[in-house]
DNA sequence: AGTTGACTTAAAGTTAACTTTAAGTTGTAG
DNA sequence: CTACAACTTAAAGTTAACTTTAAGTCAACT
């Protein structure tokens, strides 16, 4: 079974223009052509496209993906280099996931904050709220109760 | 305690030019100015900058962040809208994390693949390998053993 | 053989998010 | 009062990753 660029585009959910762009950037040296110059994607090409997608989705720039592909085409003499690239990317993903988790923690706090504000009808509930009424997991986000008199000219906003 | 743009830049690890750009895009309407026009960041502005960072790091475009900030400045009348935005972003982050996890799964497989290939000195070990010698968690990535005779003209690559 | 839809390329255009530059102003230290 | 580092703005420049356009070619069908 072989696919044209339009067919593989549908199959993978990637625009055909994007696939052509990747080819132009040297990411698809393994894709063969018909005698008339039409790209013919084989079943065996799909894992290659999937690893490209994986690296792209995890934030690797096209040029770096090309280096990896170049090593793959070079064959067994570049196994070490390929392993290093994959391991580095794995660590990058772990780091990204940790960051995502801490952003999610903050969004969970904000969700609680606005749900509480919604019930009370005002964000000011949080200025008045005592730390003991805030769930423990959200303590680190809570600002100390301000005793300052906020001037009318200040652009203070409740988040 | 107040900070100039350079000071807040150091404190948050964001380039001063980026902070000025955010201000120009309307993300920082709450930042006051000295009589001479110098930005003066208050302690109270830091949570605002942190929520902006959180939304940015989780992929929200600057223009959408501006909408959220606009609602914050509008005050208690826009609590519902703010809650909706935060909840939508929370769901977006959950989705991103699931995607990241599946990319990580693939990178773990690739790590195993190249470690094994490194020991064997060739990626061809995987073409010869029986499914029973592949750890169960990696079965879904394993291609069936090809019995086809690969022509010398084919650009087949081992990934 | 002709039509037609999908393919080809090179080149130009788009977008987001900054960054840099240039010319000028502010504010602190001596 | 002067020097000077850090601030200000508007405008132009940068980069990555596509997308679009235009002009032409391929191949399947009648």
Total separate domains of chain A: 2
Query: pLDDT below 50 for ≥5 consecutive residues: which ranges of chain A?
Result: none
Question: What would you say the CATH architecture of the largest domain in chain A is?
Answer: Orthogonal Bundle
Strand order of the largest sheet of chain A: 1-3-2
What's this entry about, in short?
Chain A is mainly alpha-helical and 159 residues long. Chain A is built from six helices and three strands.
What is the strand and helix layout of this fold?
The structure is a homodimer of 159-residue chains.
Chain A: E1 2-3, H1 5-12, H2 16-24, E2 32-33, E3 39-42, H3 46-57, H4 62-74, H5 79-120, H6 125-128
Antiparallel strand pairs in A: 1-3, 2-3
Chain A binds a DNA duplex (30 and 30 nucleotides) through residues 4-6, 15-18, 20-21, 24-25, 34, 36-39, 61-63.
Key structural traits:
homodimer, 159 residues, mainly alpha, Multidrug-efflux Transporter Regulator, Chain: A, Domain 2, three-stranded antiparallel β-sheet, 6 helices, 55% helix, DNA-binding
């Amino acid at each position: 079974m072989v696919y044209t660029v339009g067919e593989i585009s549908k199959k993978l959910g990637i625009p055909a223009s994007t696939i052509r762009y990747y080819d132009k950037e040297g990411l698809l040296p393994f894709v063969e052509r018909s005698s008339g110059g039409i790209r013919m994607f084989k079943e065996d090409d799909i894992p290659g496209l999937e690893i490209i997608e994986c690296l792209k989705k995890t934030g690797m720039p096209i040029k770096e993906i090309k280096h990896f592909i170049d090593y793959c085409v070079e064959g067994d003499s570049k196994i070490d280099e390929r392993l290093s690239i994959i391991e580095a990317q794995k660590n990058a993903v772990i780091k990204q996931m940790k960051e995502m988790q801490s952003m999610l923690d903050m969004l969970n706090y904000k969700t609680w904050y606005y749900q509480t504000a919604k019930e009370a009808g005002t964000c000011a509930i949080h200025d008045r709220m005592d730390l003991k009424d805030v769930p423990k997991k959200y303590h680190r986000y809570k600002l100390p109760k301000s005793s300052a008199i906020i001037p009318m000219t200040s652009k203070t906003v409740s988040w």
